[in-house]
Design a protein that fits this description.
This protein is an alpha+beta fold. The chain has 2 helices and 5 strands. Pfam families: YolD.
């Protein structure tokens, strides 16, 4: 297959004047050169959406656990291990729940809490 050798004029069209981007389709077929493909966008995994009834039930479980000073086990989106401890504070301004265990406080965003367990927690495992 005979392809036309690109000339300087053809090569000038490779570079568009828009922010120095390489034009991808200008010389396709004319000189046999192919353009540079755009890089794929990387999207972060999104938190699952939950309706207001599920969120209200989670909030009620957290309020009950705080009032009873019981230990909770929280399954948190984005964390490999669950968070265990007693609820020290629920900050409505920041939307974070402060969990304390062995003098160490962990702050967890309310919207990241997927599951709250209060009963049947094995307290001797940690």
């Amino acid at each position: 297959m005979n392809r036309k050798k690109p000339t300087n004029k053809d090569l000038r069209f490779l570079y568009s004047s828009e922010n120095g981007r390489i034009a991808t389709n200008v010389l396709v077929g004319v000189s046999g050169l192919t353009g540079v493909p755009k890089p794929k966008k990387k999207y972060d995994a999104k938190r699952p959406t939950r309706d207001e009834f599920v969120l209200e039930e989670l909030a009620n479980q957290l309020i009950e656990a705080k009032s009873e000073s019981s230990e909770v086990l929280l399954t948190v989106w984005g964390m490999e291990l669950p968070v265990r401890g007693r609820i020290e504070n629920m900050d409505s301004r920041t939307g974070k729940v402060h969990i304390q265990k062995n003098g160490e406080t962990t702050k967890v965003a309310f919207m990241d809490i997927m599951k709250v367990e209060t009963r049947g927690i094995d307290t001797e495992s940690e």
